[in-house]
Specification:
Blueprint: H1 2-10, E1 12-13, H2 24-32, H3 34-43, H4 51-62, H5 67-70, E2 71-73, H6 77-86, H7 90-102, E3 106-108, H8 110-128, E4 131-134, E5 137-140, H9 143-147, E6 161-170, E7 177-183, E8 189-194, H10 197-206, E9 219-225, E10 233-239, H11 243-251, E11 259-267, H12 275-296, E12 306-311, H13 320-324, E13 328-333, E14 338-341, E15 347-349, H14 352-358, E16 373-375, E17 383-389, H15 392-398, E18 403-405, H16 408-413
Parallel strand pairs: 11-12, 13-18
Antiparallel strand pairs: 1-18, 2-3, 4-5, 6-7, 7-8, 8-9, 9-10, 10-11, 12-17, 13-17, 14-15, 14-16
Amino acid sequence: MIHKRKKQRRLEIERADFKWETNPLLTEIRVRGNGIFQEAAATNKAYGITEFDVAIQTMIHLAGFPPERVWRGIDKTILEVAKNIKLKNSCKVAEMLNKAISKDKVNLDLRLVRFEALRQVERLKDIYSHGTNINGKIVTLPAKYMGNPNYSPFKSIEARISTKGKKILIDSGTGETQLVVKEMSSDIEVIMKKVPIEISRLYKLGFHYLHAEPKDEIEAYGAYIKDEKMPFAWVSYSPVWREYKKKMLNYFGIESHCVVEMTRAWNSIWSPKNTMSVLFSFAHNQLRKQWKKNVDTGKEDKPLAGVITSINGNMGFHANAFRGVGFEVAGLKPSNFTYYKDEHGYLTYIPRRKLAQKLELKGEEELITNLNFESSRFPLLPTYEMILLFDQNARAKLSKRPIYRIPDDDYLKT
């Protein structure tokens, strides 16, 4: 019993000691390389490539270099920065890094940033040209429309969706529920509804920054402008299947088969500011209603308890839309980026399960010895595991519980 309690304490972080952190070694690349990313996006506006697209892909891929190769210095500052990130002391890191930059002891290698940014632009061009067969027609990603602010159908850069006067409709053909709201400045109707699986797959591979398809989608929902066939915002859900996530849920007394995972979410560059929070709320209501029907017909044994998702703070994400609908940080997961290394030594980010499949390996554990495998060289902060529980009492209890730390061994197993 004593051993079990010690092990449990090692897995816990007191909530009072937790604060949301981002990784200065990566986030400062976006700040100081902003001119490069803006220029690359402007030059390739015809493809719908945005500053966000270029910056995020460049940051992910630069993390495959040793940090002292990306951040050049005349002393050991970067080694100290990396050491402190490993010690989970990012506030000290940010201060240390910015002080060294201001004194010209450390400088971002802008030539390397520009080289990688241009390489990622070419990669994004290829990704954005992807198409899929829907009802006998090849449908391509609407990147040019979604990525160009000049094509925004809304009048104001401060566009905002209003749920005042919202309408609930039932599609006469499918019987599915739709939520109709309006954008305030333009009075344009926006419709929240299900996204066909083929369109959702197209968006997973094309628009989402991971450019990979997760397992077994349950449902996907999107925000549409009236009479348009492609959503300008989208969210996708899958079952919880990774064992380390199941263990974390079990730690909080939550049955994993009563939870779904939000695996992907994306919105266009010109989406109204609260699009995602409205879409999340609609999607969760629909998932709960569908789950209730499944309980009534015996397909499920209990109502849907909640939704889990992962947010990578290393990239500078703060999860504001997620917090706005009630997501709570519940766990910390080891972070890693995995890459395919070609014959020239160039790296391409691919999630480890997909990479193992690409290399025709028996399992992910074989990656480490494969010559075409590379792992991130930057020290990374943990990824945040967030949970939204629908029951208010359960949500209140979760907000007072310690935060669960997912062990490295559990993470590497699945």
